[in-house]
């Protein structure tokens, strides 16, 4: 499964450009505290967060995560979007809550 | 491969550059043919230590040395030091400032994460500063075949 497959669902929209949408997806991790993400997320995981912050991308890149989903319709700033395009880590938005996002991804068949 | 040694400055509260040392080290370890799992471990340790100097100290330096057998990193900062190392090592213990919390830090998981991923960790501290020495042993299994 790839990031672009998530975008087939109407729940999700792409915030960044197309770079990285072919990244492989192999699981879900959700937390808004970066040391938890650092300690527990695995390579190719989708990160779901409300943490609207450039350090999210730093961590996502160090861990080789597949993409970042901002739940609760979080509006991210331009600097984060630019960084995401640079790092090939797509940013995806959704109006769903974090827990609804997990369920929606599960229904799409994201393995975990 | 040639040994690799670098010193980096870490500025107080410089959250935009935080993670640079971890990211440069990750690149160097990739070049040396180490496995993804091994690189992940080292990256976590260095990232957490680097962030701690940024958010909790007045700034400092990181000295990294990589050989075929090990990675050694020493973080030395200019204070204000850690009150109780026993407390600091506890999962969930944090004195993070509101700036750090707004940026996603302050879970109190950094030092426990570092402990979990490193083969040796020596943390010493006084009001003049904190020193964190980390060692990651490299065995032949840690190289991609
Ligand atoms: N270099 C340092 N200088 C001063 N205090 C430090 C330093 N490193 C750690 N500490 C103290 O130890 C505590 C625990 O550190 P730890 O990295 O485990 O958690 P944290 O940094 O608060 O949160 P997290 O790492 O989960 O984002 C810190 O809150 C701080 O009080
Ligand atoms: Mg920390």
The largest beta-sheet of chain A arranges its strands as 1-5-4-3-2
Q: What Rg of chain A is obtained from the alpha carbons, in whole angstroms?
A: 12 Å
CATH superfamily of chain A: HprK N-terminal domain-like
What is the total tally of β strands of chain A? 5
Number of separate domains of chain A: 1
Q: Looking at the structure, what is the overall shape of chain A? A: globular
* Residue fraction in strands of chain B: 25-35%
Largest sheet features of chain B: 5 strands, antiparallel
Approximate helicity band of chain B: 25-40%
Oligomer: heterodimer
Q: Count the helices of chain A. How many? A: 5
Major sheet of chain A, described briefly? 5 strands, mixed
- Pattern of helices and strands of chain B: EHHEEHHHEE
**What's the total number of strands of chain B?**
5
Percentage of residues in strands of chain A: 15-25%
Helical proportion of chain A, percent range: 25-40%
CATH topology of chain A: Udp-n-acetylmuramoylalanyl-d-glutamate--2,6- Diaminopimelate Ligase, Chain: A, domain 1
The averaged pLDDT of chain B comes out at: 97
Query: Largest interface here, residues on each chain?
Result: A-B, 19 and 26 residues
How would you explain this protein's 3D organization?
The complex is a heterodimer of chains A (112) and B (145). Chain A is α/β, with parallel strands linked by helices and 112 residues long. Chain A has one domain: Udp-n-acetylmuramoylalanyl-d-glutamate--2,6- Diaminopimelate Ligase, Chain: A, domain 1 (3-Layer(aba) Sandwich), CATH 3.40.1390.20. Chain A is 37% helix and 16% strand. In chain A, strands 1-5-4-3-2 form a five-stranded mixed β-sheet, with helices on both faces. In chain A, strand 4, helix 4 and strand 5 form a beta-alpha-beta unit. Chain A is globular, with a radius of gyration of 12 Å. The termini of chain A are close together. The model of chain A has no long low-confidence stretch (mean pLDDT 96). In chain B, 38% of the residues are buried. In chain B, helix 1 runs antiparallel to helix 2 and helix 2 runs antiparallel to helix 5. A five-stranded antiparallel β-sheet of chain B has the order 1-2-3-5-4, covered by helices on one side. The model of chain B has no long low-confidence stretch (mean pLDDT 97). In chain B, strand 2 and strand 3 form a beta hairpin. Chain B has a single domain, classed as Heat Shock Protein 90, CATH 3.30.565. With 145 residues, chain B is an alpha+beta fold. The chains are: A alpha/beta (112), B alpha+beta (145). The site of adenosine-5'-triphosphate (ATP) has 22 residues of chain B, from helix 2 and helix 5.
